[in-house]
Design the sequence.
């Protein structure tokens, strides 16, 4: 019985370590590539690019940038800054919603050319 418990604990520990490595690996795979937002908003020019533990992109009207921290197998998107240009109200509302969604996201997944951050879907350009 002790051997089974030790084996299960070892497997759980290995799985937890692998998950942490996956978040870092996902960011490394996305590094330097430009991704275009396809959902929940379509027909926008919203993009994101990663460089190490930082990111930047175009939010529809303004350029934006920030940093990423990995903690407990989750991403923490922080220190988001952006330019202060004005645009059409509809695009400004979409941009504001996008930035809020980005800040609230804590998961990242990359599969082939599809990147998911929280509930948002991007395709590599």
Sequence:
């Amino acid at each position: 019985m002790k051997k089974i418990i030790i084996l299960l604990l070892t497997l759980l520990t290995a799985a937890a370590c692998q998950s942490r490595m996956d978040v870092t690996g996902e960011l490394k795979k996305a590094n330097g590539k430009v991704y275009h937002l396809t959902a929940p908003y379509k027909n926008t020019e919203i993009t994101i690019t990663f460089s190490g533990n930082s990111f930047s992109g175009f939010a529809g009207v303004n350029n934006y940038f920030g940093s990423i921290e990995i903690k407990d197998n989750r991403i923490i998107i922080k220190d988001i800054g952006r330019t202060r240009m004005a645009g059409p109200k509809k695009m400004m509302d979409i941009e504001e919603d996008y930035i809020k969604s980005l800040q609230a996201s804590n998961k990242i997944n990359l599969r082939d050319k599809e990147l998911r951050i929280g509930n948002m879907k991007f395709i590599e350009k």
In short: DSSP finds two helices and eight strands in the chain. Confidence is low (pLDDT under 50) at residues 14-21. The beta strands are 34-39, 47-51, 54-58, 63-71, 74-82, 108-111, 114-117, 120-124.
